[in-house]
Specification:
This protein has about 400 residues and is of the alpha/beta class. Helix content is about 40%, strand content about 15%. The strands form 3 sheets. Strands 11-10-9-8-7-6-13-12 form an 8-stranded parallel sheet, with helices on one face. Helix 8 runs parallel beside helix 9. The chain is globular. The mean pLDDT is about 95. The structure holds 6-hydroxymethylpterin-diphosphate. 6-hydroxymethylpterin-diphosphate binds next to strand 6 and strand 10. The site of 6-hydroxymethylpterin-diphosphate (HH2) has 20 residues, from strand 6 and strand 10.
């Protein structure tokens, strides 16, 4: 019986399995892959010159990708490029070689071509994070009286340390210690109070575990003390927008950072979040944050990015963004995603409170991992998340197909 079945055209590994099924030699796979049209790139922000260049090249010969321009009146500077990898590579070379060169276009296309490659591995606190090998887990240690998910449970330093140790034993790859709640309308905390909350916990965890420590703060003065006490990463939910000294403090300590997207401030962010193009605006914000970090001396390779689920986003924005995390891969840096116990999960499951959102959280982290959108997930329930991610990662990476796809 003749059978035709779709192969995921955007996944090179699946195409290669099809070549194997066809009995084609492994040595030829890369070359064959380059012949297949599996790239669809949405371009925005084009100059008129760049748009004309794309149009003229696609009309001239089939050596270049097809070009579908956007509506020049409603959406000027937009269009869809569709073609094979080698065609896009040729276009990059032509954009650079042109008398009036188009380096910005060439770089944007190069970043898109590199988006399926894993970011360079990160050494943190004596551990190696080999991005792309699996989904890593960041365990949450909130030393706050008012966090939305676990407010007050670990406000006492000893309780917080014991909780962190338990998360480390459960397999957390990283612990995130926070002394100020970021939930909408939370009480602001002064530097002294925040330091008094997080410092004993960092010291206690340093003494009792070897897990790399992150500190969830927006303040340079808190970060300075935390890094002195042995923290390895600063997690700033404002993407280095709150405190102009924070990037330098991170750079001078040789620390890593996680820069998150937020629209507005925690006090106002959920009032009326609005986007024209959500993915584009999140990407632009994060690129700006990276530029700030790099200008202060933080190496690119020590930066993680986070789309900020629930931070200035409606229910629909959160789902839309989680579905499209892969598009943020063009930023070329590892992505951290925090969905754990958040409000959109409560809404999806009929209004369950934060304390009853474990299964929903596991559904979210497994889905994000399967879609290939996250390198690290930030969760409260490490044991359960590790199990869910082990399954999701195994399914995503499952390349053995028995006799059908035998090696
Ligand atoms: N979410 C929260 C806090 N910090 N940091 C990053 N990078 N990404 C997140 O999604 C994120 C974060 C909110 O969760 P939680 O810490 O449980 O609550 P609270 O801020 O109320 O303490």
């Amino acid at each position: 019986m003749i059978r035709a079945r779709p192969i995921a055209a955007d996944r090179p590994e699946d195409l290669m399995l099809a070549f194997r099924r066809m009995g084609l030699p492994a040595a030829a796979h890369e070359e064959l892959l380059a012949k297949l049209p599996h790239l669809q790139l949405l371009l925005t922000g084009l100059t008129e010159d760049a748009a004309r260049f794309l149009q003229s090249r696609s009309e001239a010969t089939t050596n270049y990708p097809a070009w579908i321009p956007g509506d020049p009146k409603a959406r000027p500077g937009t269009g869809l490029l569709s073609g094979r990898r080698e065609q896009v590579e040729r276009l990059v070379a032509a954009a650079r070689a042109r008398a009036a060169a188009l380096p910005e276009l060439a770089s944007a296309l190069e970043r898109a071509l590199a988006a399926d490659r894993a970011p360079a591995a990160l050494e943190l606190g004596g551990r190696t994070f080999a991005w792309g090998s699996r989904t890593y887990v960041m365990g949450v240690v909130n030393v706050t009286p008012d966090s939305f998910s676990d407010g007050g449970r670990f406000f006492d330093a000893e309780a917080a340390i014991a909780h962190g140790v338990a998360l480390a034993e459960a397999g957390a790859d990283l612990l995130d210690v926070g002394g100020e709640s970021t939930r909408p309308g939370a009480q602001a905390v002064g530097v002294e109070e925040e330091v008094a909350r997080v410092l004993p916990v960092i010291q206690g965890l340093r003494a009792r575990t070897s897990v790399p420590l992150s500190v969830d703060t927006t303040k340079a003065a808190v970060a300075r003390e935390a890094l002195k006490a042995g923290a390895h990463l600063i997690n700033d939910i404002t993407g280095f927008r709150s405190d102009p000294d924070l990037p330098r403090v991170v750079a001078e300590a040789g620390a890593a950072c996680c820069l998150m997207h937020i629209q507005g401030t925690p006090a106002t962010m959920q009032q009326a979040p609005r986007y024209d193009d959500l993915v584009e605006e999140v990407a632009a914000f994060l690129e700006d944050a990276v530029a700030r970090a790099v200008a202060a001396g933080v190496p690119r390779g020590r930066i993680l990015l986070d789309p900020g689920i629930g931070f200035g986003k409606t229910f629909d924005h959160n789902l839309f963004l989680l579905r499209r995390l892969g598009e943020l891969r063009v930023l070329g840096l590892p992505l951290l995603v925090g969905t754990s116990r958040k409000g959109f999960l409560g809404k999806l499951t009929g209004g369950k409170p934060a304390s009853e959102r474990l299964a929903a959280t596991l559904g979210s982290v497994a889905t994000v991992a399967t879609l290939g959108g996250a390198d690290v997930v930030r969760v409260h329930d490490v044991t359960e998340a590790r199990d869910a991610l082990t399954v999701a990662d195994a399914i995503r990476q499952g390349l053995e197909g028995g006799l059908l796809y035998s090696r």
